[in-house]
Amino acid sequence: MLQSQNAIAQQLGELFGYWFRNGIVSRFKAQAAERLQRTYDEIKAAVKGGALVHADETKVTVRSNSAYVWVFTNLEEVLYVYSDTREGETPKTILEGFKGVLVSDFYTAYDSWTARSRSA
């Protein structure tokens, strides 16, 4: 269910008795993203630092717009990446420097990435 940030603030007040001004939920989200950036970077480094990565992407709809969630895993850590497009730039950026085996479906974005990686 999609909820506005103001609706989330209202529900926090109703459920827990914490009443927030408009815009505070947006600030909470920004602060959480900043605090979690290091964790994201560590997961990304662990995934691409191993010998094996499984990768896939799936189409999602966000507010009537199509987008994609890419998944990269080394079977221990999992990295989810949101992208507005299905273009091959996402796996190229995430897997830059990866030297192991890439397991994927037959989507050509992965083929073009592996061809560029091997020739470099």
Summarize the amount of helix as a percent range: 40-55%
Number of helices: 4
Q: Strands of the biggest beta sheet: in what spatial order?
A: 3-2-1-4
Counting structural domains, the number is: 2
Taken as a percent bin, the fraction of beta residues is: 15-25%
Give the overall silhouette: elongated
Give the tally of β-strands.
4
Q: Uncertain runs with pLDDT below 50, 5 residues or more?
A: 115-120
The helix/strand class is: alpha+beta
From the alpha carbons, calculate the radius of gyration and give it in angstroms: 18 Å
Mean pLDDT: 88
Q: Name the helix and strand elements from N-terminus to C-terminus, one letter apiece.
A: HHEEEHEH
Q: For the terminal residues, how far apart are their CA atoms?
A: 45 Å
Sheet with the most strands, sense and barrel status: 4 strands, mixed
Q: What would your notes on this structure say?
A:
The structure is a single chain. The protein is of the alpha+beta class. The protein has two domains: 1-34, no CATH class; 49-119. The chain has four helices and four strands. The protein has helices spanning 5-16, 24-48, 89-94, 108-119, and strands spanning 52-62, 65-73, 78-83, 101-103. Strands 3-2-1-4 form a four-stranded mixed beta sheet. The longest helix has 25 residues, at 24-48. The model is unreliable at 115-120 (pLDDT under 50).
